[in-house]
């Protein structure tokens, strides 16, 4: 049934009964409420959760056709929820959102079954477009490619993820002092 904003939810997000179910998980209450309203205006039946445990419970009750999950939740990682979503429903279309974008977590999210990985602040149009993308479309080349500092930061993040987020092991493999690595990890990604 179309809503006020028009029925524009992607066909891949429709359940067997024709509804457009979407699980939205984020621990930022303001973002959660705003995005929920905007997605409902675009025809989704949105169920919200404010953390990993709440998201897993909502998933257990009724696996959604689509999901938008924050990577860093107060009580765990959104990647754990992506894995649980894929187990509960093979055809789920999930997107990971994060304010801490890096290549290693993007690769992990896609390997676990996410269809896309967007950095915050993501606009609702970007989210709907990512949910609708069939995987055949080619991405546009970047307007502003990564700086050398960003490439270095991405490499450090990748090695950190490969070492199961063990700071000492990552520092050893990168031939870097552990405290230097801790300072780098504590900062936001360079532009």
UniProtKB/TrEMBL annotation:
An individual GO BP term: phosphorelay signal transduction system
Keywords noted in UniProt: Phosphoprotein, Transcription, Transcription regulation
Keyword Transcription regulation assigned: yes
Domain Response regulatory: from-to ranges: 21-135
In-chain residues carrying the UniProt-annotated modification 4-aspartylphosphate: 70
Cross-referenced Pfam families: Response_reg (PF00072)
SUPFAM superfamilies: CheY-like
Family matches, as PANTHER family: RESPONSE REGULATORY DOMAIN-CONTAINING PROTEIN, STRESS RESPONSE REGULATOR PROTEIN 1
Protein name: ActR/PrrA/RegA family redox response regulator transcription factor
Organism: Aurantimonas marianensis
């Amino acid at each position: 049934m179309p809503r006020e904003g028009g029925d524009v939810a992607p066909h891949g997000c429709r359940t067997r009964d024709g509804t457009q179910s979407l699980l939205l998980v984020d621990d930022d209450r303001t973002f959660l409420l705003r995005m929920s309203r905007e997605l409902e205006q675009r025809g989704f039946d949105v169920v919200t959760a404010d953390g990993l445990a709440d998201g897993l419970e909502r998933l257990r009750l009724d696996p959604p056709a689509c999901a938008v999950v924050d990577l860093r939740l107060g009580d765990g990682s959104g990647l754990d929820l992506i894995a649980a979503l894929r187990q509960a429903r093979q055809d789920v279309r999930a997107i990971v959102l994060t304010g801490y974008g890096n290549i290693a977590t993007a690769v992990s999210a896609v390997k676990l079954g996410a269809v896309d990985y967007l950095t915050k602040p993501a606009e609702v149009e970007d989210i709907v477009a990512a949910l609708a993308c069939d995987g055949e479309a080619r991405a546009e080349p970047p307007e502003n490619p990564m700086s050398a500092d960003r490439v270095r930061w991405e490499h450090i993040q990748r090695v950190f993820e490969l070492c199961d987020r063990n700071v000492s092991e990552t520092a050893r493999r990168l031939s870097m002092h552990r405290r230097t690595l801790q300072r780098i990890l504590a900062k936001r990604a360079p532009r």
